[in-house]
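task queued by scheduler; priority normal; single chain, no ligands, no partner chains; default sampling; output format set to structure tokens
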Amino acid sequence: MSKVIVISGTPGTGKTLVSSILAKKINGLHVNLSELVLKEKLYKEIDKERETVVADLRKLVPRLIEIIKSTNSPIIIEGHYAEIVPESFIDIVIILRTHPKELEKRLKEKKFKESKIRENIQAEILGVCSYNALNTYNKEKIYEIDTTSKTPDETVELILKIIEGKGNEYKIGKIDWLTVLEKEGTLSEFFRER
């Protein structure tokens, strides 16, 4: 069983629910980076304009290493900036991806501000979480799952398949929203001024 699994992705792709279900299935520890930063005050400042906190990586990274070293259970570290965990501690990285139209719907349901919806959709189209993972971790450790039409339980089943070493079809590099949206003729919708 993999000891440390990173689950990353743009807000709204299903990270928190999927990580929670996965932790229960494998009897693991679920570490939600946003909750940890808030609970333990591991932030530098609160960005009121963007409605977010700015994590203090000099405090957060050592705390994560401490958590990893202190348990023998599998650990799921979840967050949209989860690439901060040093590679030497990571076994598998899963990036959850969602079609931008579906992501927009989910973020509206979560009552995100229009500017945050736009920022997150653009990040998803450009594959920011995947890009960050590729710049941090060995490509062989990284997988992507399209959650657009999957339930959280279906996504967890795919992650379990990857953990078992049977998920090569989910290796990073197969999801390309730029090309999909260009073919659909909808790419410009997400990048023009509103």
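post-processing summary
- Residues 108 and 114 are 8 Å apart (CA to CA).
- Strands lie at 4-9, 29-32, 43-47, 52-55, 75-78, 92-97, 142-146.
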